[in-house]
Design goal:
The chain is α/β, with parallel strands linked by helices. It has two domains: 140 residues, Response regulator (Rossmann fold, 3-Layer(aba) Sandwich), CATH 3.40.50; 53 residues, no CATH class. Helices cover 45% and strands 16% of the residues. The chain has seven helices and nine strands; from the N terminus they run βαβαβββαβαβαββαα. It has a five-stranded parallel beta sheet with strand order 2-1-3-6-7, sandwiched between helices. It has a two-stranded antiparallel ribbon with strand order 4-5. Strands 8-9 form a two-stranded antiparallel sheet. Helix 1 crosses helix 5. The protein is elongated.
Length: 211
Amino acid sequence: MPPEKITPSTPIRVLVVDDDVVDRLRLVRLLNQAPGCTFIIEEVVDKAGAVAALKTKAFDCVLLDFRLPDGDGMDLLKEIHAAAGECPPVIMQTTLDHAETAIETLAQGAQDYLVKGRFNSAELHRAIRHAIQRDQLVKERNRLTTELQTALARVKTLEGLLPMCAWCKKMFQNEKGEWQTFDAYIGRHTNVIISHGVCSECELKYFNQKT
């Protein structure tokens, strides 16, 4: 479920996904020590628990362990995105301090990458805030892109009244007073390609006349 847009005074809903009880306790302690911010924390210990929680509840951020009993790494990140639909921002945590792993994790949709034991409460709080802000910017960009594509599609669609000559059936084209055939008008203003055939009445009238 997508979360509501947060403000600086809004409690941040965090899903902690980690099977190591010591690491979970440390994360909760660091979150509770963050100055000027309140966190609502839910903890799960495996991939299945994370997917289930994301399907039924709204979170502002996910703190995800790289290795879990039933999945790990990039595959887990992909599945969470697929299961949750519009997934909240994910911060991957790992004991691996590898640049290649960090780059691949970000490429698969994570907003940040933290090495366990190398961040304090302020750094964790800042990472969560930045991840949420970047995620909101991306989703706003996607929303605007979708609206633009819809608007462009509507430009290609004829709407309203179509001026047509009652006698020859030509269509009015522009401010110069030029008229054109129906086929040309439709081809100019839409993506429709006109194909021609003969209806049964015209076939009988013009091609099957008895002499």
